[in-house]
Amino acid sequence: MNNKPIIALDFPSEKDVVQFLKQFHEPLFVKIGMELYLQEGPSVVAKVKELGHDVFLDLKLHDIPNTVKSAMKGLARLGVDLVNVHAAGGINMMQGALEGLEAGTSPGQKRAALIAVTQLTSTTEQQIWDEQKIQVPLIESVLHYAKITKQAGLDGVVCSVHEAGLIGEACGDAFLRVTPGIRLAGGESHDQKRVATPDYARNNGSSLIVVGRAITNAQDPVSAYKTVVDLWEEK
Ligand SMILES: O=c1ccn([C@@H]2O[C@H](COP(=O)(O)O)[C@@H](O)[C@H]2O)c(=O)[nH]1
């Protein structure tokens, strides 16, 4: 797994993905999420891997432990680099996910890194109070989810840039902080609430950044990607 910015391939079909990826002439780190996977299924993962790219399969599993364990066993066979669950599923569910992933990984194959979503980057503090009835500051909820994720033995979390530094201090630098909600300065936030720029992410504890629409909706996606890489690498 490399540490390039992860491009979110939020497209409706494999055809759109292949057309998008044709513009790039280097191996990338890309994310396949629900929109694409639920339309195209596992074959789109194989296609993107065949084109030479690292893959984060972002399906955010959240179910009873036994179901998540079995699902992860199946996903392990796809040979992706990074997968995830929701930390709200609990410690037993996360341990089940890890067991499934280990059981489904062939001998000699590297196990995918497993991370858990804390609070979605589209969520605000007001929302966790009103809708989830979590009566603590959002940072505390995110930190708590990070700590139980570590306790379950997972490799890291999905969080916003604004919590990444504190999670690094609490859970150690090797514990991954994968941060979506990345925008270029002055860019439209869309439905995201806890956003930051790539250079802010670099300086504030992110291990990996996820960038979708700031690249995929750009007039020149290759040039937008290059800008993100330059800011992320602090050139
Ligand atoms: O908390 C989360 C977890 C996952 N995502 C995913 O990342 C991308 C972000 O796309 P943008 O276009 O850059 O907003 C998207 O695929 C989400 O499903 C997230 O945003 N926040």
Give descriptors for this structure.
Orotidine 5'-phosphate decarboxylase, EC 4.1.1.23, single chain, lyase, eight-stranded parallel beta barrel, alpha/beta, binds the ligand O=c1ccn([C@@H]2O[C@H](COP(=O)(O)O)[C@@H](O)[C@H]2O)c(=O)[nH]1, globular, 235 residues, TIM Barrel
Overview of this protein structure:
- Residues 4-228 form the Orotidine 5'-phosphate decarboxylase domain.
- Belongs to the OMP decarboxylase family. Type 1 subfamily.
- InterPro entries: Aldolase_TIM, OMPdecase, OMPdecase_AS, OMPdecase_bac, OMPdeCOase_dom, RibuloseP-bd_barrel.
- It catalyses: orotidine 5'-phosphate + H(+) = UMP + CO2.
- With 235 residues, the chain is of the alpha/beta class.
- Helix content is 44%, strand content 16%.
- It has helices spanning 14-21, 34-40, 42-50, 65-76, 91-104, 125-130, 138-151, 161-171, 198-203, 213-216, 221-232, and strands at 6-8, 29-33, 54-61, 82-86, 113-117, 156-158, 176-179, 208-211.
- An eight-stranded parallel barrel has the order 1-2-3-4-5-6-7-8, surrounded by seven helices.
- α4 runs parallel beside α5 (91-104) and α7 crosses α8 (161-171).
- The ligand O=c1ccn([C@@H]2O[C@H](COP(=O)(O)O)[C@@H](O)[C@H]2O)c(=O)[nH]1 is lined by residues 8, 10, 33, 117, 120-121, 158, 180-182, 190, 192, 210-214.
